[in-house]
Design goal:
This protein has helices at about 5-10, 20-30, 30-35, 40-45, 50-60, 65-80, 85-90, 95-110, 115-125, 140-150, 165-170, 185-200, 235-250, 255-270, and strands at about 130-135, 155-160, 175-180, 200-205, 220-225, 230, 230-235. It is an alpha/beta fold. The chain folds into two domains: about 5-80, Arc Repressor Mutant, subunit A; about 115-270, Glucose-6-phosphate isomerase like protein, domain 1 (Rossmann fold). The protein has a five-stranded parallel β-sheet with strand order 2-1-3-4-5, sandwiched between helices. Helix 10 links the parallel strand 1 (about 130-135) and strand 2 (about 155-160).
Length: about 280
C-alpha cells in the first residue's frame, strides 16, 4: 500500500464506490493538499457529504481510518515535493512550521517508545568503536550524537565524505555504525552502511520508514518523520533522536560515563576552558 499513489488506490476500488464516495474521490483527486492537511469536517463539507462517509471512504481504500489515509497522502506529497525549489513553488501544500515540527518530534518519541530506545542503544554501548555516518539533512543529528558520545565513552568517530574510505577501513566486525539518512537518500551514506553490514559491523539506522534502503540492512532501526521547514528538511527530529540515544547510553554506562565526565571536567578546569562566573 505504501508504494501506491492515491489515484491508484481510488482506481482499484472505483467500481465499488457509492455516489457519496465518488464525490469524495473527485475532491481528493482535484485537491490532494486538502486531504493531506485538512480535517475530516473540511473534506466532508467540500464533498457535500458526512464525516462517517469520509471514514468509510478511507476504509474502502484499505486504511484503518482517516488519520492513516492522511498520513499516507502526506508521505506521498512530501516525496513529490522533495526538491527545495519545488517546495518554494508549492508553498501552499506545506504544513505550517509549528505543526510540522510538532509532528516530527512526536514521531521521535513514538519511535523511542517501549523498549525500542534501549534496543538501539545496546549495540552502541557494547561496541569497541562507534562510526557515525549521515546524509546532509541529518548531519546535525550526527554531530549531536558524536558530541555526546565522545564525552561518555572512547572510540567514537564521525565519518566525513572526504575521508570515508580511509576511516572505515579501520572498522571491525564487533563495531557499530550509527547511520542517519532520510529520503532523498545519500548514495555514499547508503553504500558505506551496506559495505559495513557486509563486513559484520552492526548498523543502527535512524531513517524514515521500512522502504528506506537502511531498513533492509539491520533490525536495529527506527522510523522518524522529517518535516519540511520552508524549502529544506528539518534537522530537529535527527537531533532529538541523537539526544535520546546519548541519554540512554549515559544511563547504561553509568559508572564509566560518570568517571569520564569527571575527567573531562578536570581537563576543562586545568585548561581554563570556561570563563569564570
Amino acid at each position: 500500500m505504501a508504494a501506491s499513489s492515491t489515484t491508484e488506490l481510488i482506481a482499484a476500488v472505483g467500481d465499488r464506490l457509492t455516489p457519496a464516495e465518488r464525490r469524495i474521490a473527485e475532491v481528493v483527486l482535484a485537491e490532494p493538499t486538502l486531504l493531506a492537511f485538512g480535517t475530516v469536517s473540511e473534506l466532508a463539507i467540500r464533498a457535500g457529504t458526512s464525516r462517517p462517509s469520509i471514514v468509510r471512504f478511507a476504509t474502502k481504500l484499505g486504511f484503518d481510518g482517516y488519520t492513516q489515509l492522511q498520513t499516507h497522502v502526506r508521505g506521498r506529497l512530501s516525496q513529490r515535493l522533495a526538491r527545495p525549489s519545488d517546495r518554494i513553488r508549492h508553498e501552499e501544500g506545506m504544513l505550517p512550521a509549528q505543526s510540522a515540527l510538532e509532528q516530527g518530534l512526536a514521531s521521535v518519541f513514538e519511535a523511542a517508545g517501549g523498549d525500542r530506545l534501549a534496543e538501539l542503544a545496546e549495540p552502541i554501548v557494547a561496541a569497541p568503536s562507534v562510526w557515525i555516518i549521515s546524509g546532509e539533512t541529518s548531519r546535525a543529528g550526527a554531530h549531536a550524537l558524536h558530541s555526546g558520545l565522545t564525552m561518555l565513552r572512547p572510540g567514537v568517530h564521525i565519518v566525513e565524505d572526504h575521508s570515508m574510505g580511509r576511516d572505515l577501513a579501520n572498522a571491525e566486525p564487533e563495531d557499530v555504525a550509527v547511520v542517519f539518512d532520510f529520503f532523498r537518500y545519500r548514495r555514499r551514506a547508503i553504500r558505506a552502511a551496506s559495505t559495513l553490514a557486509d563486513h559484520g559491523v552492526t548498523v543502527v539506522a535512524i531513517t524514515d520508514g521500512p522502504l528506506s534502503p537502511l531498513a533492509a540492512l539491520t533490525d536495529h532501526w527506527c522510523q522518524v518523520r522529517v518535516p519540511a521547514i520552508g524549502p529544506f528538511d528539518s534537522s530537529v527530529p535527527a537531533v532529538a533522536m541523537a539526544e535520546l540515544l546519548v541519554a540512554e547510553v549515559a544511563d547504561r554506562l553509568h559508572e564509566e560515563a560518570t568517571e569520564r565526565l569527571d575527567r573531562n571536567e578536570d581537563l576543562w578546569a586545568a585548561t581554563e576552558t570556561f570563563l569564570e562566573e
